[in-house]
Amino acid sequence: MDAVQMQGEGDPKTEDPISYSSSVKKARLQSMLSALLDDPILSDVPKKLSLSDVQTLISLEMGSAMKISILKLDASSFDVAVLNSATVKDLKLAIKKKTNDMEQSQMGHRHISWRHVWANYCLMHHNEKLIDDNALLQDFGIRNNSQVRFIPYVIARASKRHSRRRKHRFFHGLSKSL
C-alpha cells in the first residue's frame, strides 16, 4: 500500500488531471472569447460580460428589450440596454454598470459615489423627472432608442423628494431670520 501511495504522489500524470484539463479549457475559452469580442460586429458587447448582460443583449435582438441613450451633462452620451419591463431603478443600475465599465477601461480603478450622484442629479425624459425608482419606464413614454438626460437636482432629506438646490434653501432661510 505504501508503494502505491508513493507512486501516485511523485507521478505528474496522477497528481491532478482535472485541474490541468479545466485550466487548459478555461484558457482556450478565454482566448476564443477575446477573439470574438474583438470582432467589429460584436462591438456593443461589454468586455467584462456577465450572464445578465448576455440575456439583455439577446432580449434586445429579439425585441423584448430597449436601447436607451443617456445624455450626460457634458453633452456626451452612451447607450444602455434594459428590458421593456424595466423600472427607473433598473435603468439606474444599467447606467451605473456601464459607467463603471467605461471608467475602468479608460482610467483604471476609480470609485464613483453613486449615492452622491443620485442625491444631486436625476434623470429626465421629455421634461418629466424620473424620480420614483419603482415606476416603469414605459409609463414615462420611454421606448427603444429614447433619450434620457441627467439634470442637476437635490433630494430633500425629510420628504425624499427633489427640491431646490441646498445652498438656495440655506440662504433663503437666512434672509427670513434677519
TrEMBL record:
<protein>
    <submittedName>
        <fullName>Uncharacterized protein</fullName>
    </submittedName>
</protein>
